Amino acid sequence: MHKLECKLPFVTGATIEWLEQKIPLSDHHRNGTAHQVFTAEQSKSTSSDREQSFSESYQMTREPVEIDPDEEVLDTSDNRENDLGAVEEQRSVILHLLSQLKLGMDLTRVVLPTFILEKRSLLEMYADFMSHPDLFITITNGSTPEDRMIRFVEYYLTSFHEGRKGAIAKKPYNPIIGETFHCSWQVPKDHRLCNNSTSQKTAPPEESEGKAPSDYYTVRFVAEQLSHHPPVSGFYAECAERRICVNAHVWTKSKFMGMSIGVSMVGEGVLSLLEHGEEYTFTLPSAYARSILTVPWVELGGKVTINCAKTGYSSAITFHTKPFYGGKLHRVTAEVKHNPTNTVVCRVQGEWNGVLEFAYSSGESKTVDLTKLPVTRKRVRPLEKQRQSESRQLWQYVTEALRNEDLDKATEHKRMLEEQQRAEERHRIETNTPWQTKYFLKEGDGWIYHKALCKSPGLST
Hints:
By secondary structure, this protein is α+β, with helices and mostly antiparallel strands.
């Protein structure tokens, strides 16, 4: 197996990522009221008081921590975003922000108002791409290289729709460097894994509650914020028993486009099927937040590729943005090709958040309705069992304030976290101490999980 260079996964799905907020625009409002200004003495005192405690707490969590799966329970949180009123009420804030932006402007360090926060971290959002773990572990069931590539394309195209947590586009929290998120999914072994007709499933494969561990497959997931500037996140998922894993890192770049915000995804992801000795590299589409002055919504756009060098199969996928006049929303087309013979073996058309139609060279066809495709709930450890650097523990007070619609309190808690991050960064600079990641190791231009299946002796082919 050749050296893995993992750069990026099927991230950003249907949710747009907004980058690090650090430099406030002049006279910017935070929630419809003037942004609080601190004196130099207050800022210095606050920074000094927190710098040591934050540095010490993060030093204690630098080492990888093994997560006990027995502590994980089915996630019952529901962070659907349907608060259209908040967007309408804060239109003056948005107008003020837009008046200070220029076309093509990099938004990496622009402060965005708190009312657009999504009540979860970007790291947790990445886990939505594993919301169909049954399809994920089914990829390796394919009896031929052609079948396995088609299965992966099907999984890839169904991995974006769950990322949207409501009718309007909101932004997840920008992860703090060193922040992590852990979860898992259980797929009953009696589930029809060999059934390749996704559209026929009628019940979610999450009925493993109360079953013995030997009765289900477990898919594990870990994400970590690896860098602050640039903002780079890594994530890894595996099913050890099925000998399948995906490793990736993502760096997103955003820019102002008038009434839209565009986000480009930089890098690649690598899916490894150890049983077959195959690696599939893939890229990601760009994401766009449209109509940011009225009712923000997200669409995907651009061309992506999936390629397996060993088998010679590849796929070209195009996410079509809506034309200015007419046209359909969220349209996607794809084809799977055997490159040595230049033969197209499968074509796909439809909507990445609606209905997908697969047409095979054999003359057969299949329809997948994503609105009816069961989503498997992830399993997470209760908040009281999570460490300080884990997403839900780290952002719990911001999330609580947002749920209580207390935007001022959410803004203050968020500001404190960001100040702590800057204090930690200053401390590293002053002591000439490089940042040490927990779960991912630098390899070439990418990052790889420190215990990736594809790197384990005796497991890789």
